[in-house]
Fold this protein.
Amino acid sequence: MKQTLIIILLCLFHTTLGAEEKLCPNVQTFPISTNQGKPFDVSKELAFLAVDEPINTFSEIITQFKTNPVSFANGVIPNFGNTAKQYWFCFVLHNDLNHNKRTITFIKYPLLDEVQFYALRESGEIKQNIQGRRYPFQNRDKDYRGFSFATELLPSETVTYFVGIKTDSSVSVPLMVAEEKHFDSYESLDTLMQGMFFGIVGVMSLYNLFVYFMVKDKAYLFYVNYLILASILFQLSLQGLLPVLFFPDSPELVYNAHNFLYFLFLLSCFPMSITFMNLKENAPLLYKGFMGLSIIPMLCLALLPFVPYRPLNQFGDSLSSFLAFYALFVSYYVSFVKKFPPARFYFFGYFMLIVGGLTTVLKYMGFFPVNVFTENAFQAAMALEVLLMAFGLGDRISVVQKEKERIQLKAEINKQKLIAYGKELKLAQKLQESTLPQILPKFPGLAIKTGYFPASLVGGDFYDLTVYGKQQICGLIADVTGHGVPAAIEAAMLKIAYMQTLAFANKPGKVLENINQALAGNYKNQFLTASAIFIDLEQKVLKVANAGHPALYKFNDLSKSIDVIRPKGKLIGYSKEGQYPEEVHTIRKGDKLLLFTDGIWDLWENGDSGEEALLNWLLERKAESVESLYGGIDEHIRLRNKEGPADDDITFILFEIS
């Protein structure tokens, strides 16, 4: 009995002395045969810790795992979002077979800047490899878009692995192990899937570029630009294929290209979305919102040389999330509120892209776990979006073609309306010409000069001069409201009323009174201003009546001021009871009279009153003949027309008593 107790105590003592301290604490060993050598996730038995200051020596790693609290993945793929910390992981592999096994430890996420692999063998040998996005591609043990580390395990050998991760992007660590032959099969399948995605996008880019040259619709050109920047170049960076295919020896270029392509991708969304949904016509306010937001990625591109990678990348993730929801809202509004059918393809395609994109962003930010769905959601959604957008563009062509036909039909209708309107204007012009005097009366001792300058083909002014008796002349000037045929008809009505009035009216006040009685109530409720004069050359008398019209100006060589003659009187058409009192003025040799419509004041208007400037101009040229005064007014009209078409008709009558 005593002998047996001694043997048990010796065995326990020997076991205690011979026990080795586990360098990767509290994790179970993975036997190689567990998954028949196929790729498997080591997160079930994975310990990790985070450090604020980078560790670069193996002894420091061992010290950290011995002295600091260690966390465990417990079957969840580690994902910490965007952080500046360095993370260290450890797990243990055991070759439970009786022959050597070459295994590949690999990380599928390609946006890690630095990945340090350490393999501690039972013999004490340490194998080390440092790779990452900021290291040459040749550092990786396999030509794989992720990070790979090869180890030869001897029969019954146990190897402890330590993996250090540091990156300016999101820290996502899908850590896998596989036998080399199974890894090669996995990599081949991964390459095939990537090839299918880029093949689909490449073919769709060429197809849509070909369609653009056929139909010349810029929406196709913007879509091709979007496919190249978002679905090809940015995806090449996001999937870690830039160093694999193009820049294996330029790690800094690969590193800096990511944010550059990220914001180019976001910028390319704006012209594509605006043209695809016809935002300028369908939703002007939302269009302005898109235009304003497009400035943000442009500013970010400009800031790339000056702002560190990490904050810009984090801002890009937040911006892309906001833009995704904004674009979804806009596409819903255009599709289902404004009822623009092509935008529905955009809505559903972009909805899928948003689901995939947000899944990826939230995975990178550490909110979603890393699994097959979250790893491939963005690419799968983008492939579906590419196909839906192609259908949408095809539908857009149909809608645009119908809209084009509708516009052409409307243009043809408008053309016919313009032709009819042109004929109407010509008719109105002929009608109006018939109302104006073709030959001016001639009297010994009286010079007359008239000017008529309509603002358009047909004006709203009217004038007439009629001989009344042997030594009398009756004049009427009026400003008729309206333009075109209505104005011409109203002028014709005024002409008829005026000619009927002259048969029994011998005073200007009576002329205006009779015209008012004839037109009031029968003039489409329109009003007109008018001034009537009687000049008696034998008696040397001027009689004037006014119906709300600008004054008559009277002056001569000796005038120190211009006589402004404007008797009181209501507008014609306002009431049949209107009275038009007269003013009587003596005229003598050398007197000049100017009757006009208010359009003439615009010729002298230059910030101040045009009437005051005209009076000063007449006073300065009081000694000139009516021909000279006419030339001066005509010159003012030509100068004003150089600045642009006149706003109002200009009509005037000049008299000179000689």
